[in-house]
Design a protein that fits this description.
- The chain is an alpha+beta fold.
- Helix content is 17%, strand content 15%.
- It has a 3-stranded mixed beta sheet, with helices on one face.
- Strand 2 and strand 3 form a beta hairpin.
- The longest helix has 14 residues, at 34-47.
- The protein is globular and about 60 Å long.
- The termini are far apart.
- The model is unreliable at 71-76 (pLDDT under 50).
- It binds zinc ion.
- Residues 2, 59, 61, 63 line the site of zinc ion.
Length: 82
């Protein structure tokens, strides 16, 4: 099973690497640009001992990790009563 990526608010991240689910959680503010996302991802992967190329981010099986779709910014819905 390959590594997957998800985003979460920084304060909710205890451990970026969920071993049981093969899931890396990155701070949501890194989702703004692919460059920051990859940089964060590579940092986590390297700390796990997974060698990285110069570009992109690689799973331990050698496959390029597909980044999850950018976080959709939720429309600010205001419900007025009365
Ligand atoms: Zn893989």
């Amino acid at each position: 099973m390959c590594i997957r990526v998800q985003y979460a608010p920084r304060h909710e991240i205890v451990d970026p690497w969920d071993r049981d689910r093969n899931l890396i959680t990155l701070p949501v503010d890194l989702a703004a640009t692919a460059l920051f996302t990859l940089r964060g991802l590579r940092t986590v992967l390297l700390s796990m001992g997974v060698e990285q190329d110069h570009f992109g981010a690689r799973c331990w099986c050698g496959e390029e990790i597909a980044l999850a779709a950018q976080v959709n910014q939720r429309e600010n819905e205001v419900t007025r009563v009365g």
